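Q: Structure tokens for this one, please.
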Amino acid sequence: MPSFPVARPSTLGELRAAAASGTVRRRSVKEEIRENLIQRLRDQTPLFPGIIGFDETVVPQIVNAILSRHNFILLGLRGQAKSRILRALADLLDDGLAVVPGCEIHDDPLAPICAACRARVRDEGDALPIRWLTRAARYVEKLATPDVTIADMIGDLDPIKAARAGLQLSDELTMHYGLLPRANRGIFAINELPDLAGKIQVGLFNILQEGDVQIKGYPVRLPLDLLMVFSANPEDYTARGKIITPLKDRIGSEIRTHYPATRHEGMAITAQEAWLARHDADLQLPDFVREVVEEVAFQARQDQKVDKRSGVSQRLPISLLENVVSNAERRALVAHESPVVPRITDIYAALPAITGKFELEYEGELRGADNVARDIIRAAVSTVFTGRFAEADVRQVVEWFDLGGTLQVDDTLSAAELLERTSAVQGLPELATHAGVRDRAPAPVLAAAIDFVLEGLYAQKKISRSDEWRYQTVEQPRRPAPRGVATEPLLERELPLAGNKKKYYN
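A: Here is the predicted structure, written as tokens:
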């Protein structure tokens, strides 16, 4: 129902008067969403704010489905904003809906469908109070799991309610409504539809085709008013379950989502979603670091050792960028330097944000997740380096190493120390300008650019690099000994300190 510039009707009598004057129009949910969508299209208002890269592909298909008053399903691999799109549909609802207060299924006071509400309207008449429902309360979402029952979804009889009210179990007033009836006059979304058991999917037939449900076999039919939307991973049809064919046939539109088509689209999504607002630190994030982080996801999606059927979620670059910034923040805290400037080295230190985000093929399992991730980072650095240094002359730096020059760099090295150690490499500071860094930029920014040049030359196999972990002897606690027996001596072993790797360029 439309927004009211003045006080909304508070009783059934006032609501009937508003309906008679045309202030309130009764319409189905699909018609309501359709009309509000048409108004947004005319006003050229963004339909799905925050959804990037779908303007020419997914969004037009969703618009067509809504204009056709279809129930629809979004098919796509993980991390393709399916759930976010479904939740954004609630913004197309009216900002207020008149309902009978206390009704579990948000019944329409002007045309109630449940026995309890019909009785209240008959008994209280025009004095019946009206409650107004918000958009958010009209969106119901359920994650499909194998343990969902038909009672959870549709409803069941409630013996306790029958006993307390002294009613027969066959009485309509003994019904306990499930999620579907409780979403009446709103949007009902089911995520990961293939995980729903087949017999539960059968229970959705009537609501999709005839628009009603029947509870527990009793002759009680509820003509529900719903927009039903679903999401699913197409690969799950054979992995964990499948959408049964009759249900697929009843879903009006099947819409495919996808990952960002370009690196810049991916960077925009990552910048929007990643938590980078470190309020206690001055953060300067170089563009080339952003590009490499995003390119890691693109390289992973095309790597033969990564399972493409599982997909590589957009959460990978988001988590990776957050971890990269945190590693740079840790270094800056130890070195007491500002601003905080991430380097390419920090991407290698953020492997935990990568290895859990993809599944490996057999070849990848043999090589190991960490090694696969390092190969992907190296390929990403090479791709971005080529784009930025295609016209740069790197021969002077390469020749310095070819003549026997070596350079040792620590992962935790401060910017000042890194600049001091690399100052002997002829031509290296000049190359840093191709990374978009000014000559008089702060030391941490210059250090990040020089680190990018070194990693780029290594990624393109123009110079070599060897890694050496720094080991530290760790004392193990004494083991408790029985009474009368001498305590065992301290056990010692050498453990690598994560994130403290020395790198030798030569």
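A few notes: The chain has three domains: 12-256, 263-465, 466-505. Residues 470-478, 485-499 have pLDDT under 50 and may be disordered.
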